[in-house]
Amino acid sequence: MFERFTKDARDVVRAAVAHAERADAGRVDAGHLLLALLDREGSRASFALAALGLDGRRESVREALELARRRGGLTQAETDALAGLGIHVPEIVARVEEAHGTGALSAGRRGGGRRTGHRPFGQEAKDVLTGALRAATARRDRRIGDQHLLLALTARPGVPAEVLADHGVTYESLTRVLYGDGGEARAAG
Question: Which domain holds residue 87?
Fold first, then answer.
């Protein structure tokens, strides 16, 4: 499938691996793909994010992703649902971090020293890549671009979609900006 990726999409995937390495994560996850997309300039995805007002708020997105990572990868909706059951995730995170250090619950963290080498893609990242293929196919695009990766991130449930939606970037708004419509079925999910 990688041969169908445009240069921009390949660059996003490579940058996601680099983000995972810098975070000492054991796997590349969907959040790393989003971080890589936020770093892009001059691509379809970067223009769409700018059109949706994300230009000046990219650091806010990064902070929200980091907060979710510290919660062990739980979305805010999952955290709220657990609170309804009497389980207060912020208190648990604070106690664990007090005992074991900041970021001790970070999802996918390898622990130990800085390791380099192959980073496998976690299931959620693989689902995004497959969703990008579906998004491109649904639009009859021959190549998978970084805009398809962004669409796939917004189409599947999870932290990246929640963080993007909190910043005004949804599947529907992206579809409108990229293609001028909002009625396309969710082929990226």
Answer: 2-179
